[in-house]
Design a protein that fits this description.
The complex is a heterotrimer.
Chain A lengths: L1 H33 L18 H9 L2 H32 L5 H10 L5 H15 L5 H26 L2 H10 L3 H30 L2 H6 L7 H4 L11 H31 L6
Helix pairs in contact in A: 1-11, 2-11, 3-6, 3-8, 4-6, 6-8, 7-8, 8-11
Chain B lengths: L3 E10 L2 E11 L4 E5 L6 H9 L6 E6 L2 E2 L10 E4 L11 H6 L11 H14 L15 H13 L5 E5 L7 H18 L2 E6 L2 H7 L2 E6 L2 E6 L1 H6 L4 H6 L6 E10 L2 E6 L5 E3 L6 H7 L4 E6 L5 E3 L7 E10 L3 E8 L2 E8 L9 E5 L5 E5 L5 E4 L2 H16 L1
Parallel strand pairs in B: 3-8, 3-9, 6-7, 7-8
Antiparallel strand pairs in B: 1-2, 1-4, 4-5, 9-10, 11-12, 11-14, 12-13, 14-20, 15-19, 16-17, 16-19, 17-18, 20-21
Chain C lengths: L3 E9 L13 E10 L4 E5 L6 H9 L6 E6 L2 E2 L10 E4 L11 H11 L4 H11 L18 H13 L5 E5 L7 H18 L2 E6 L2 H7 L2 E6 L2 E6 L1 H6 L4 H6 L6 E10 L2 E5 L6 E3 L13 E6 L4 E3 L7 E10 L4 E7 L2 E7 L10 E6 L5 E3 L12
Parallel strand pairs in C: 3-8, 3-9, 6-7, 7-8
Antiparallel strand pairs in C: 1-2, 1-4, 4-5, 9-10, 11-12, 11-14, 12-13, 14-20, 15-19, 16-17, 16-19, 17-18
Helix pairs in contact in C: 2-3, 2-4
The chains are: A mainly alpha, B alpha+beta, C alpha+beta.
């Protein structure tokens, strides 16, 4: 029995390793070529003289940092607004009973189901009419479709898992409702809040469709701006790689930071203990 | 310390009436037990006193002051919740200290430290102060929950089935410890339970509640010896009371009840006043209650005893319950742990008619008891209360 | 109907979930017992003691690390569960939701190819024993917890197994339902006399149902005997404190010799109990042991009593009986009585202990020190 189990494990691990290589290789390659000069691009594979000239070209001699900061502004503020509005909404859905409550909850969730490409055209026309095209406010507002549903669903689960008796106990102890919320409830939803916010940030950061169609030159996120680096005449693969690598960095860093908490944070609310 | 009154309280949740015109008066410093089966409305009643739930009708009074519009934090009540409701992210020390850090009941750090340690010592959890609730056993969590209440000096302590979720051994032990601790509470206590032993052990007075209505309020002797109806009689007592059909038979100036089998007559005792009560009750059909510890049995055939077979024999810790089947009826009685008995063997049962409780078979209401000793004790109690 | 023989059974813990600091390597440690044909055996112990693991090894749901299990004359270690001729009724009823009660009970027989009229005969034979004859065409979803458990057990015994295995079948039921079903299981066993192994953590259940009980703690068998044997003649401190409600009072004591007699004495207490003569050969002045005495063997002495004066710490009036607790040193010693006298907390009483009914346990090992006959 034991030998069988050991062979099983070896095969499982082997297959997983193979898949890991398959999945990660493109990313590895991308980072690799960002350090390759144009001259060495096609005649070397893994061994070459690394250079920073691509980084210099992209980061210092283009508007790269403007695009980067546009992404930062839009993503961070979008998540912030989702938190400020979403947490109370989640509390209401968890604690109160009202007509059509589940219909409302499902509607909020359904925003994530709809393919962006479907809604972006009508949104484009509306935004043009009301003057929100190519504005920070406009993008931040439309980003709520991406960031808020996730937050509400995760935080709602967390609130539902906190026994209402804890709020009762705190009230009986002598705390007002606000103090109960700030001092007792918030610390308990922190893991979920952090991981859901970071995941929402990653989704917002990576979004391409909305900034592409609903904003132009005044607000340009890094995802849309990356297109610029795919020139039609001379393709500077190295520079493209730099643009892609740097723009992926925040998402990757955050994901690594929260990976341990990600599964726990997101599923904790769902599983009834 | 306060006198608590509930006046005409009715609470509905949608179409469901959880509390139906409840009236209770709980004396200052009384240990008052609210006893009833699951779903009776006990927790709702406690929550109404605490202000966590608003009644549709009626008022809650603390020392004659109406509290309906006062929110829970301002009512100065301390509560022990059924599932402990400990703050998961705070240590045991901070959990117990929590009320003393709130804006309403704030104390300075030195006092907090003193009080937390005092209470932790009484509850024997002083070695656990730095732990988190997740690192505690159920028994320890329950003590912390009690500790968080004990640091207060409230108008009333509200305890919601605090030992229900402990395993049997620990529950018995904690009940004895709660009894020992009773004097430390030094305030009015309303204690909710569905366990009969907790109710009679701890309560100065017991209120029986079922389906949102208060059925009877009295001391343990009153609800045990003079339950107001069959429901109360069945609820109060373990093993459950035996209720058998009986009929009043008069024969030449002597009175008997015919029970269980046609022609089986038991003479009613003359001096307990029960005969008069039965005649005055207006019916001759009764349900007669016999407590299992009063029913006698023997395995030798004896004249005048009821013959049945042994249906089951089960241990209850230091004694056993013997169930005899007589016709369609089952009678429970107490037997020693080491009794050698075979299932279905013959057994002869004696029903103690001089320690019986009589109920109107139709209305299930209490008519009277033939238990003179009990009557005597109850009368003594009334007299001693009158003297005070 | 078969004998069950377990010889030197071991089960090593799998690594996952066990911390490195756990000293206990075995979930079941050298467990042996022999069960007669038709006997009802209970395996009793606190959670984590290894009782369910043992049952699962008998059933074939867990691998056996070492040791042998025989059902009848057959060694079943390597047999697939379905070939072991056992009936299983576990805690979680797991009835097949789309089948009626009849089909649920008959399921296994059908799978084995038993002809339909034989199936009907057997189900109709079994159903009244568990009082489910009125439920046969109902669906599991409409049954109460108690009814589901009855169907579960019926399903297990309709196969006429050599051994019936029950794992805490009553733990999800509430008080009255549990008592009623407990009585039914006892009567059922009286009827069909199927060799049964019943796992529980509830000592009252074990005491009521078992012909003999195996008490386990931390994977090790503590004692195997009839209910009265484990109650009156416990093998060690663990068994003595586990069986009986309220539990036996077990106190650390120092033996003092005074004028040819030995006495039990206790720290921070004036209490002195005369040791029973049958222990005298084993006692030495200054010896430290643990003494156990049941709450039924402690009394409040009358006015002329020479018992030790103590103060009542707890007085519980439970109507049919009264429980009095006194503090001996730091320990709360409980006694039970049907005497009608009521006491107040703090009131002084004279404590008498029936020394003849005391048990001695070794301070270190907890083993019972039995008097030489």
């Amino acid at each position: 029995m034991r030998r069988k189990r050991m062979i099983n494990n070896a095969v499982k691990n082997g297959l997983l390793a193979l898949y890991a290589i398959f999945a990660l290789f493109p990313l590895f390659w991308m980072v690799l070529i960002s350090f390759k000069s144009d001259a060495q691009m096609f005649n070397t594979t893994f061994f070459f003289d690394p250079t920073l000239e691509n980084y210099e070209a992209v980061l210092l001699r283009t508007d790269y940092f403007k695009y980067f900061f546009d992404s930062v502004i839009v993503s961070v503020i979008a998540v912030l607004i989702s938190v400020l509005a979403g947490v109370p909404a989640a509390y209401a859905l968890a604690r109160y009973d009202f007509k059509k409550k589940e219909d409302l909850a499902f509607t909020i969730l359904s925003f994530r189901f709809a393919p962006e490409i479907l809604v972006v055209l009508p949104l484009f026309m509306i935004y043009q009419k009301i003057g929100l095209y190519d504005t920070y406010f406009g993008l931040i507002w439309v980003y709520q479709l991406i960031t808020m549903p996730l937050l509400i669903w995760v935080i709602r689960g967390y609130f539902e898992d906190i026994s209402v008796e804890i709020e009762h106990a705190a009230m009986v102890d002598g705390y007002t409702w606000w103090q109960v919320f700030l001092k007792r409830l918030l610390p308990l939803i922190k893991p979920g809040l952090v991981s859901a916010s970071l995941l929402a940030f990653i989704f917002a950061w990576n979004n391409f469709t909305f900034p592409l169609m609903l904003s132009g030159t005044k607000v340009e996120t890094i995802t849309v701006a990356s297109l610029k680096y795919i020139a039609s005449d001379t393709v500077h693969y190295g520079q493209m790689a730099v643009a892609a690598t740097v723009s992926a960095l925040p998402a990757v860093i955050f994901a690594l930071l929260i990976q341990k908490h990600l599964v726990r944070g997101l599923s904790f609310g769902a599983v009834k203990g | 310390m306060a006198k608590i009154e509930l006046v005409n309280i009715t609470k509905r949740f949608g179409k469901f009436t959880a509390l139906d015109n409840v009236n209770l008066e709980i004396k200052d410093n009384e240990f008052f037990v609210l006893f009833g089966p699951a779903g009776a409305g006990k927790t709702t009643l406690l929550n109404t006193v605490a202000g966590l739930v608003m009644p549709e009708e009626g008022v809650v009074k603390f020392n004659d002051e109406i509290m309906n519009k006062v929110d829970p934090s301002h009512r100065n009540v301390a509560m022990v919740f059924e599932n402990y409701a400990l703050y998961p992210n705070l240590t045991v020390y901070e959990n117990i200290a929590s009320p003393l850090r709130s804006p309403l009941y704030k104390k300075d750090d030195a006092t907090i430290d003193k009080e937390v340690h005092r209470v932790a010592q009484i509850l024997r959890i002083d070695h656990l102060l730095e732990r988190l609730p997740s690192q505690l056993s159920n028994g320890q969590k329950q003590r912390v929950a009690i500790g968080r209440a004990l640091v207060r000096n409230p108008n009333v302590f509200l305890m919601d089935e605090p030992i229900a979720h402990l395993d049997a051994k620990l529950r018995h032990h904690m009940r004895s410890e709660l009894k020992e601790m009773q004097s430390s509470f030094n305030s009015t206590v309303i204690y909710v339970t569905h366990d009969f032993l907790e109710a009679v052990s701890l309560g100065d007075r017991i209120a029986i509640i079922n389906e949102g209505k208060i059925i009877q309020v009295g001391t343990r002797e009153e609800v045990y010896y003079t339950p107001c109806n069959e429901f109360v009689a069945s609820l109060v007592g373990e093993p459950e009371i035996n209720l058998v059909d009986g009929r009043l038979i008069a024969d030449n100036g002597k009175y008997y009840v015919e029970v269980l089998q046609k022609g089986y007559m038991l003479p009613l005792p003359e001096n307990s006043g029960i005969i008069k009560k039965l005649i005055d009750s207006g019916t001759t059909e009764y349900h007669i209650g016999f407590r299992p510890n009063n029913v006698k049995y023997t395995f030798e055939k004896k004249e005048g005893l009821l013959r049945g077979t042994v249906y089951s024999f089960e241990s209850i810790g230091n004694k056993a319950v013997l169930i005899a089947k007589i016709g369609d009826q089952f009678l429970r009685m107490i037997a020693p742990n080491d009794l050698k008995v075979k299932l279905d063997q013959d057994v002869y049962v004696e029903l103690p008619i001089n320690r019986a409780t009589f109920f109107n078979a139709q209305t299930t209401q209490f008519i009277g008891t033939s238990d003179e000793a009990a009557i005597y004790r109850l009368v003594q109690e009334q007299l001693s209360k009158g003297v005070q | 109907m078969s004998k069950l023989i377990i010889k030197n059974l071991y089960k090593r813990y799998e690594n996952k979930g066990r911390k490195k600091t756990d000293k206990n390597e075995f979930a079941v440690n050298n467990f042996s017992l022999e069960c007669e044909d038709g006997e009802f055996i209970a395996i009793l112990g606190p959670s984590g003691c290894g009782k369910t693991t043992t049952l699962r090894m008998i059933a074939g749901l867990e691998d056996i690390t070492a040791g042998d299990i025989f059902i009848g004359d057959t060694r079943i270690n390597d047999l697939h569960p379905k070939d072991r001729n056992i009936g299983l009724a576990f805690e979680d009823y797991a009835l097949y939701p789309p089948l009626t009660v009849f089909d649920n009970i008959a399921f296994n027989l059908k799978a084995k190819g038993v002809p339909a009229d034989e199936i009907k005969k057997r189900v109709m034979e079994i159903a009244p024993l568990l009082k489910v004859e009125d439920l046969l065409d109902k669906m599991p979803v409409s049954l109460s917890g108690g009814q589901k458990q009855r169907v579960n057990i019926a399903r297990a015994i309709v196969r006429r197994p050599g051994i019936l295995l029950l794992d805490e079948p009553l733990s999800h039921l509430d008080g009255k339902m549990r008592q009623a079903l407990r009585t039914e299981i006892k009567r059922l066993h009286n009827e069909i006399k199927c060799t049964t192994v019943y796992v529980t953590h509830d000592q009252l259940e074990a005491m009521s149902l078992a012909d003999r009980m195996a008490i386990m703690n931390l994977g090790v068998l503590q004692q195997f005997g009839t209910p009265m044997e484990v109650y009156d003649d416990p093998a060690n401190e663990f068994v003595a404190g586990f069986i009986g409600e309220p539990p036996m009072n077990i106190l650390k004591t120092t033996i003092i010799k005074h004028e040819n007699d030995f006495y039990f004495t206790f720290e921070n207490s004036d209490l002195r109990i005369l040791c029973p003569k049958r222990y005298y050969d084993l006692l030495k002045d200054g010896m430290q042991v643990k003494m156990g005495v049941r709450p039924t063997d402690i009394y409040v002495g009358g006015p002329d009593s020479k018992g030790t004066p103590v103060r009542v710490a707890v007085f519980e009036d439970l109507c049919a009986e009264r429980r009095i607790g006194v503090r001996v040193g730091d320990e709360l010693v409980m006694m039970i009585t049907e005497d009608e006298t009521r006491y107040r907390q703090g009131e002084q009483i004279k404590l008498e202990v029936n020394g003849e009914k005391t048990h001695l346990f070794d301070l270190e090992t907890g083993n019972r020190i039995r008097p030489k006959k």
